[in-house]
Amino acid sequence: MTATRLWIRDPLAILAEGAGGGIVVEGSRIAELVPAGGRPSAPVDETVDASRHVVIPGLVNTHHHVFQTLTRAHPAAINKPLFPWLKALYPVWDKLNPEAFRLATRLAFTELLLSGCTTAGDHHYLYPKGLEAAVDIQVEEARALGIRAVVTRGSMSLSESEGGLPPDTLVQDDDAILTDSERVLGLFHDPRPGAMVQIGLAPCSPFNVTKRLMRESARLADAHDCRLHTHLGETLDEDAYCLEVFGQRPVDYLEEVGWMNPRVWLAHGIHFTDSEVARLGRAGVGVCHCPTSNMTLASGRCRTCELEAAGSPVGLGVDGSASNDNSNLIEGVRHAVMLNRLTYGAEAVTHLDALRWATEGSARCLGRDDIGRIAAGREADLALFTLDELRFSGAHDPLAALILCGAHRADRVMVAGRWRVLDGEPLGVDTGRLREEHSRLARTLFGGV
Q: Start and end of every Amidohydrolase-related domain (predicted)?
């Protein structure tokens, strides 16, 4: 059966060269870029008038903790830096159960879709008793929503009593973690181009996993051709912990456990020296910049420009919804512009740089060259925004306006050639019911702590 050809015609603006007349989608891929004033080279079955829309590649989220949507603006943790913030929330998160986790995942993935995100990366490291099938739940929810997903099997194995940060109730044994990592890789990981679900391995951070778990995870990743992810270089407290416990800085730790290679991408990557930036770049280690979370927790500023110049892929992530308090990646693009201009100067970082980080850069962090760009042969993952709100009135450059004037909700979103958001609403999701059920569980499980 021949795939339907859809022409998304004459966009107001598009983040692609030579596509002023739009793009043709055939099946799950982009078949053709149409020049301004031109027409497709072959007949089309359907046309969508995009004259009101700014069209960009679907955004790619490379770091999140979706379970944290249940503890947004929690009184136990607001106005705290990372380590005290974590210690305040660990006992709260101990109550997480499968029903709550499913709703948290559904809500966060829906939020991401509505913000123009077509690939949802999540780093789930919390496995209280009863939540052993967390990865299975996330894969089910991603498939139901039709969002592309990179679900990392996170872990914590070094408890407070053993010199780590989390309480004993939230850690798992190394062997149990590795066994389940092999299980979910075997069940769900698809390394092929166009994959809708991929699995990564993500021991949480130096202060809550063992070195053995880091080394064994790297060996598993090699065997299964999957990515490796962890937090690194987020705070000065982490630097101090690594020096005290391991006698080395975080990047030295990373090298010792066999993680200095292109299979790896890191969350945050703030507190690196010049020589460490150069080492990471030579190794091809990616870094996910999380501007909103970094500002909320006052962790510091990622050295995005230096890392990218050194050779590291740089992507964007919303990070956990208890240190960001939403799951909106297009908002994160705006924050990336603002924070990095404060760091590097007004002329050094543009809206196009931040959009590149959120699309091509994020895709590189995930080891993918099939998403993140509008080009013939790439997956048809697209986000279409209108500029009809008051916030955009008077704007002259549509692509710049999308970021600088603060877009926060897409009008249409396509994943793998299929519409998943139409007229600003996610298909197949009762958002009112989802919000009510999610809010009720958040109050019941985590309120009044």
A: 54-418
